[in-house]
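R.M. (postdoc): so does anyone remember the format we settled on? I'll just put the structure tokens first.
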């Protein structure tokens, strides 16, 4: 589900929603990992990075995706988030990137819902940066994720 957000840009665009929020997440990943290719690297990795998610995460990176998925689920239940208007896949928020230190800051001008979603994305981007990408975990067969 985590990078389903990146993978499903066309679906969001087709639905008439604002896809710039998806690009914010991609840009956060690029802040912490400037030489990465977020859509290619994470669209079909492990059991949770990409569309859907089930089973036991296969490694730390896959666990980052699982935690991000849960964070987005929690955002949909957050008391300050209105489910249709504050969808984590489309909600815009304010953040800054310190490229030299590869540090993301969610800005105080965010409302409570925007801050929650920004923190979901920030924590995931930071988690990706400290987790190894293991080639054998890309394109896992679905029967490995039950």
């Amino acid at each position: 589900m985590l990078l389903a957000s990146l993978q499903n840009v066309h679906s969001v665009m087709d639905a008439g929603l604002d896809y710039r929020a998806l690009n914010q997440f991609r840009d956060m990943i690029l802040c912490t990992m400037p030489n990465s290719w977020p859509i290619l690297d994470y669209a079909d990795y492990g059991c949770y990075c990409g569309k859907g998610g089930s089973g036991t995460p296969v490694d730390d990176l896959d666990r980052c995706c699982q935690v991000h998925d849960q964070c987005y689920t929690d955002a949909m239940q957050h008391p300050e988030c209105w489910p249709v208007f504050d969808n984590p896949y489309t909600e815009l928020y304010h953040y800054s990137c310190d490229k030299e230190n590869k540090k993301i800051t969610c800005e105080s001008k965010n409302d409570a819902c925007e801050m929650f979603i920004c923190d979901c994305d920030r924590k995931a981007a930071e988690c990706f940066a400290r987790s190894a990408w293991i080639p054998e975990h890309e394109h896992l067969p679905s029967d490995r994720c039950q």
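R.M.: ...and that's the designed sequence above, right after the tokens. Also worth knowing: Strands lie at 44-45, 49-50, 95-98, 103-106. The first helix runs from residue 4 to 7.
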